[in-house]
Amino acid sequence: MSIIAPKQEKSFTAQFPLETFGIRHGYAEHPLFKLSAILELVKKLPRDRIEYNSGKAAVSQDPDTTPLVDLEPEEIVRKIETAGAWMVLKGIEAAPEYRALLKEALMSVATARGHKNLDEAGFESIQGFLFVSSPNSTTPFHADSEDNFFVQIHGEKFFHVYDNRDYSIASDEALEGTVAKHRNLAYDPKFDAKAISYHLFPGDGLFVPYQWPHWVKTADSYSISMAITWKTAEVRRRNDLVVTNSMLRSFGLPQPAPGQIPALDTLKVAAFRTAAAAVAPFRRSEGVRRAIRRIVLGKNANYYYRDKPKKTA
Ligand SMILES: [Fe+2]
Asked: Final residue of a domain: which of 200, 231, 262?
């Protein structure tokens, strides 16, 4: 089979990239996703690329009160069956073997859609997020600022995703917050009726469109899954504009919504990118990244990044 293939033949042309659809993939038995390989990856990644907390998070979870676990990342992998933890390894494309795998997966989609290479298909800024979760763990309701092929590798997951094109699930302002501040969103039980739900087994997956809200729960076994993400030039521009608007508003300067004054949008994106390029060399330092996160997002932004394990309150 192709590395990533749609469950319904026409999904790659009829639904991509505007709607969610089910996929199959060829990574369920891949050696890079065995716990022993994941343990090696944990040892290699910078500490601020590993986020984890208790799997007992609520669907509607205030990030400031996220329940924690009193374990180090390596212990979580070793004890995943009983750790009661949810963990994500971010930016796994930093490791060449995972980067090659992410590119291979997206190239299979590009080829199926008639493109010759990843750039031509719009698969730029490719990143991988690897999720390692204990049984019965919840990923709170949130939205991501990139497109995503989510692949289930080990265990079962219940994945609930919501079409938000009419902003009835999350307002435009709330979604801007998921790009500029924290990804979590408030969940209202009345959204239940609008859920598009997938029961995922190893080898299954789905396409999650840009900023479509979702929440996830593992079943009775531990779970390994991966988000294969990318950002088109259009998505990068939108994200940069949203972050700029959020910063300017925090200085007491009201901003028009994206698209209302296109020339001003262009100016703001250019200014943001100039500033981002200036600080980019400093962001290679883990300590500076941590300090910037604290300044921009507040003192609780580093809750998962602690020098010593902290007891759950
Ligand atoms: Fe997500």
From this structure: 231
